[in-house]
Structure formats: structure tokens, C-alpha cells
Write a structure and sequence with these properties.
The protein is of the alpha/beta class. It is 15% helix and 28% strand. Helix 2 links the parallel strand 1 and strand 2. Helix 4 packs across helix 7. The structure holds heme C. Heme C binds next to helix 5, helix 6 and helix 7.
């Protein structure tokens, strides 16, 4: 056969195969180039708050006019003692060494900087006994370059502090939450390495205007979690070997009831097939192993430019509250995920060993193959290039009216927000929202028992509750220990107790 003939035979085969392909596909499939199209212009209206700036590395804390004092902490000294001496504006430099303590920061504008010398870091080691490494409630707090390990509760927890930067920390095996800003506005979590966390490695709770970028998150139950929070961007992270990779959802029963306006883009989300070792009955304890991205009841979530590979249940799982395990419905939270927007993502080798529920959904739609995207109960979603993926539950998703989010660089604010000023009458509420709600929801099980159960025990005895949280004793076999709240003064503990007893949702 002459070479001319081979070419013509190939052309014929090619034309046939092409015709079969396009003819066999849904003839309305729209093929879009994400480079050409319009950019997303919705989301957070910065003009309502402040002007927006455009860099992922911009600062979230107030720029210092005058640098304060530098307090150096040497191996064997106490970090907490240095914090007690520090004034707002000061920097605490921690030299390499081992530190066994919990550091509470209740002042504003303090920077905790680990000094790294020839690879050796300042190491906070809880030795399996202490609960938390760092708890801050001040505003404009920076925490960087630490190594945190073997705590039982949190690595770094923010309790109602605004404008924070948590960067370049290594957090290994620290119990429940690795980095956990709760009730904060305007914060950056960047370039941390976090592993071995029983709940969420990075847990953004009830917060606003958050940027989570360039973190390496692995071997945990949930990788990165945006929960009851708004205006968050999660980008350029490497999220692997967790049970679930990146999660945007609403936990019912928390005082703040919504999650919306979240962009998840340009992350590597691979092989998140770790056996679930979360607390039985907890929300993350219900995540099926092998979930790349989970969107539960959150609205306006955009998924773009991620490489999502090797997640055995599904690349993207979207669900309402009704179909999620371990979730109690909250009448004040909308259980439906509205307007999930899926732009171009590279998805390979997902869904190869999926859950029975997903198989059943596929069967209902006469779909075959391993699911990249599974949705149940989602409303008003959109997608581009849907023909690329094996999907179920998104037939009613429309074509998105934009193809990229390039116009939205960050939701961080141009100017740090003013420090939160807490009126004494609000103290109980802020403690409840900033601390207790990290582990207790009103109706359901989280890390601790539901508030309704606690109310039944203590309704007429707020002082008893306040005493319990000062020195909790282990009561329930199927729950972990509750960490003592003895760093709060007696008045504040009582205020929190009364506030908890007074809640109705
Ligand atoms: C790090 C998670 C965590 C945080 C934060 C937390 N709790 Fe708890 N709480 C628990 C756990 C776990 C239990 C169950 C302990 C047990 O039964 O052994 C519990 C139990 C309780 C109980 C039940 C006491 C009893 O007699 O049965 C009360 C009351 C309580 N917490 C109040 C609070 C208050 C108030 C706050 C905020 C100041 C708070 N908790 C913060 C985890 C937490």
C-alpha cells in the first residue's frame, strides 16, 4: 500500500470516528474555551465594604507605622511570659528549641515569629497532654515559621480576632483542628504544611474575607474547610490523602447560618482516599473517603482550574442537607446548595470505587462510568464543557455565563478592618461564638454534645455550667475530653454559660 493510501484511509476513519463521537453525544453540548470568555463579575461587592487590592500575597494586618519592641524567646524560656510583657506593636521572636506550653494572645497587633536556623524551628510540642498550642483573640495577629506538634485540640485557633496572617507553619498531628480561625474577618492562611488532623487541617469557621493559598494539606480527615463563612478564596493548595479534600458547607446549628461566595481554584486535589478517622457522628465523620471537593448547602461556590485526580468516591460531590449523613436540619439554614458554578477543571481517575448512593443516582440517569461529579439537591447550578466529565444530578445545570474568575484576585480587604470592640454585655455571646461554637452546635453532634442536651442538664444552673467548663471532667465515653476554659475569667465563663443556656437555635 502506498503511503498516500494510508493517509486517505486514516482520514476516512478519522471522519467516521469524529462523526460517531459528535453524533453520539448530546448534540447540544457546548464547547467553550476558558481563555476566551467573560470573567466572573459577581460575588462580594467590595465597594460596600472597602476597595479591593489584587495580590494573593497582600497583607491582611495593619501596616506598622512604628515597629515596637522585639522580645526574644530562647530555648527553655516561656513564650507566654514574653506575650505577657509585650505591648501592641511588638514582635516575639522564638528561637529554635522545644516549648511545651499553650500560648494565649489577647492583645492586638502582636507578631509571633519563629526563627528558623539551618532548618531548625521553634517547636511547640504538646507532648500529647496539652490541648492547644496557640489561642489568639487579639486583632492584627501574625503567626509564622513555627513547628507545632502533638497537641490534643488545636494547633492555632483564632477566637474572634480580625486581620490575621498565619503563614509558613508546619503543623503535625495536633488533634482536632490544625489552623482554625473562628469568627474572624480579613485573614490570610498561606504556605503552611499540615498533616494528621482528626477533623479539619484548615478550618475557616464563621469568618469573612479569607484567603487560603499555597498550603500543603494531607493525611487528615478534612483538608480545607470553609464552614459558615463568606467571601473566601481557596487557591493553589496541594490537598492529598485526606478523607475529603476541600469542603465548603454549612454546619446547621451554629449562630451564623450561611456559607456563600467561595472560589476554589487552581488547587491540586488528589487521592483523598484516607480512611475516615473523624469522631463518629460528627459532620466530617460522615464524609465518604475519596471525596475531592464537597459542597454541602453552600451557595455561590465556583470551582475552577483545579486538578482533581484519583479521588475514589467522586471528584466533586454536591449535596443538600437532607441527603448528607450526620446532619440535623436547622430551620434557619437553607439546606439547598444554590448556584454552584463549575468552570474548567482537569478531572481524571475519580469515582472508581464510589459509594452505593452515587451508583444509585447514576443508575437512575442510565449513566455509566466512574463519576467525576455527583450532585443531589443542587439548584440553579451552571457548568461549562460538561461533556468532559461523567456526571450525575446536574442535568438541569445551565451553561455558565462566564468562564473564569480572573477579575477576582482576592476577597481580602484593602484596609484591615478595625479591631472588634466588645461591649461587656456582649462578652458571653462573643465567647460562645468565638470559642464554644467551634465544638458545639445547637442541634447536632460536633466535637462536643449538642447545646440542647447541655440545656437540659444545666437550664437552672448557669453557675454549674461555668464551673464545669473551668475544670471539665470526662463524662461521655463516645466523646473526647473537653479542654478546660480556665483562661477565661470567672465572670466571662458565667456570661458564656448564660448565653449558651439562652440560645434557641
Ligand atoms: C475543643 C472542643 C470544645 C470546645 C471549644 C468547647 N467544648 Fe464543651 N464539650 C466538648 C466535649 C468533647 C464535651 C463532652 C465531654 C464529655 O462528655 O466528656 C463537652 C461538654 C460540654 C458540656 C457538658 C457538661 C456536662 O456536665 O455534661 C458543657 C456544659 C460544655 N461543654 C460547655 C462549653 C462551653 C460553654 C464552651 C465555650 C466556652 C465549650 N463547651 C467549648 C468540647 C468542647
Amino acid at each position: 500500500m502506498s503511503s498516500g493510501k494510508i493517509i486517505s484511509v486514516l482520514l476516512v476513519i478519522g471522519a467516521f470516528a469524529g462523526g460517531a463521537y459528535y453524533g453520539g453525544q448530546n448534540s447540544t453540548s457546548v464547547i467553550t474555551s476558558s481563555r476566551g470568555g467573560a470573567s466572573f463579575s459577581g460575588g462580594f461587592d467590595k465597594s460596600a465594604d472597602q476597595k479591593n487590592v489584587s495580590s494573593t500575597t497582600k497583607s491582611a494586618v495593619i501596616k506598622r507605622e512604628v515597629e515596637g519592641k522585639v522580645h526574644r524567646v530562647n530555648d527553655g524560656d516561656s513564650i507566654m511570659a514574653a506575650v505577657q510583657l509585650a505591648q501592641p506593636g511588638d514582635t516575639i521572636q522564638i528561637m529554635p528549641g522545644s516549648y511545651h506550653e499553650t500560648v494565649y494572645i489577647d492583645k492586638d497587633d502582636i507578631r509571633i515569629i519563629g526563627v528558623i536556623q539551618q532548618g531548625k524551628r521553634a517547636t511547640l510540642d504538646g507532648q500529647g497532654k496539652l490541648n492547644d498550642a496557640i489561642l489568639y483573640s487579639g486583632n492584627n495577629i501574625v503567626i509564622e515559621n513555627l513547628l507545632i506538634t502533638r497537641y490534643k485540640g488545636n494547633g492555632i485557633m483564632g477566637q474572634a480576632g480580625n486581620n490575621f496572617e498565619i503563614r509558613n507553619n508546619v503543623i503535625v498531628d495536633t488533634g482536632v483542628y490544625g489552623i482554625f480561625p473562628q469568627l474572624g474577618k480579613n485573614g490570610l492562611i498561606v504556605s503552611n504544611v499540615i498533616s494528621g488532623i482528626e477533623d479539619a487541617a484548615i478550618y475557616v469557621g464563621m469568618s469573612d474575607n479569607i484567603h487560603v493559598a499555597y498550603n500543603d494539606v494531607f493525611d487528615s480527615v478534612a483538608g480545607i474547610e470553609i464552614e459558615n463563612s463568606r467571601h473566601a478564596i481557596v487557591e493553589n493548595n496541594y490537598v492529598h490523602n485526606n478523607t475529603g479534600g476541600i469542603l465548603a458547607f454549612i454546619t446547621p446549628g451554629l449562630p451564623i447560618k450561611t456559607t456563600y461566595d467561595v472560589i476554589i481554584r487552581n488547587n491540586f486535589i488528589s487521592n483523598n482516599n484516607h480512611k475516615n478517622f473523624g469522631a463518629p457522628g460528627s459532620t466530617v465523620g460522615g464524609i465518604p473517603a475519596g471525596t475531592g471537593i464537597l459542597i454541602m448547602a453552600a451557595d455561590d461556590v465556583i470551582v475552577e482550574g483545579n486538578i482533581i485526580s484519583g479521588n475514589k468516591t467522586a471528584g466533586i460531590l454536591i449535596t443538600d442537607h437532607h441527603n448528607a449523613p450526620n446532619v440535623t436540619i436547622d430551620p434557619e439554614s437553607d439546606p439547598v446548595p444554590h448556584r454552584v458554578m463549575i468552570l474548567d477543571n482537569l478531572m481524571i481517575n475519580n469515582g472508581y470505587d464510589t459509594i452505593d448512593e452515587a451508583k444509585a443516582l447514576m443508575l437512575l440517569e442510565f449513566k455509566q462510568g466512574n463519576p467525576d461529579i455527583i450532585a443531589i439537591g443542587a439548584k440553579d447550578g451552571c457548568i461549562i464543557n460538561r461533556h468532559r466529565y461523567v456526571t450525575s444530578g446536574i442535568n438541569d445545570f445551565k451553561e455558565c455565563s462566564f468562564t473564569n474568575t480572573a477579575a477576582t484576585q482576592t476577597y481580602l480587604l484593602d484596609e484591615p478592618v478595625p479591631p472588634r470592640i466588645i461591649d461587656p454585655s456582649e462578652r458571653g455571646k462573643v465567647v460562645y461564638m468565638g470559642i464554644c461554637a467551634g465544638c458545639h452546635t445547637y442541634t447536632g453532634r460536633m466535637i462536643g454534645p449538642p447545646v440542647q442536651i447541655i440545656q437540659a442538664l444545666y437550664m437552672d444552673n448557669p453557675q454549674g455550667l461555668a464551673d464545669y467548663i473551668e475544670h471539665p471532667i470526662k463524662k461521655r465515653d463516645d466523646y473526647p475530653e473537653m479542654p478546660p476554659q480556665n483562661y477565661l475569667d470567672a465572670e466571662t465563663r458565667l456570661a458564656a454559660a448564660k448565653y449558651m443556656l439562652g440560645r434557641t437555635n
